[in-house]
Design a protein that fits this description.
about 270 residues; 12 helices; about 85% helix; globular
Amino acid sequence: MSWFLELWSFPFMQHALLAGAMVGLLCGYYGVFMVQRGLSFLGDGLAHAAFGGVALALLLGWTPLYVALPFTVVVSLGITALRERTHLGGDTAVGIFFAVSVALGVLFLGLKKDYSVDAFAYLFGSILGVTGFDLWAVALLLILSALLIPFTWRSLAYATFDSELARSDRVPVRLLDYLLSVLIALTVVVSVKVVGIVLVASFLVIPAATARLLSPTLYRMTLTSSLLGILSSVVGLLISYQVDVPSGSTIILSQAFIFVVAALVSGKARG
């Protein structure tokens, strides 16, 4: 148990645990709406949009977050607009922007020519390299989300279950759709430093999918998903510290293990 007490003495571990817990909470919360709306693929699309923004920032020599944030937000708004204004399905709209963003990212990295450690840190995650700036970015988004919840959660839940009925009750469904897409985009961007572009979509989907198996209501599902996001982040980070392997992988594998247990438990309960 001495190793557990020892790791708290390292500032980089304190930053990593705090970042993991906050990102887990954000992804757990917004992942619920993605899963319930059948938009699980959206996480992948926005993660690869973030890759395009990071690659552009590296090409220009700018701070990746400053470019990836607006780049990913624009893509998320484009996906939402394409879904609403055409007969294309959500997966098709995401797939189009997914492909374009990846192509742009590859192009920008190709133009840069020289090898960049930063690109790999964002691709595969670097939670132990989280800085004070990264923590503030995540904390500000968490505060913004907390301030919005009292005003948006009920309407978002209503629109998620029955958007047509919500429109008839004068709920601003279109505005909520755009707001949700922007907030998910921001969550993806602040999360890539923790688990990486390759794995961030799983971070959004697995805790919410697990919570769906265990929860009879959306309210319970939201609470469970958020708690699972925090728990899996901390457990995965502790495992990675002990085994000395990349933390992004252990966090996602921790979530997958909890999902399997939940699936078995819920299956037995139905039987």
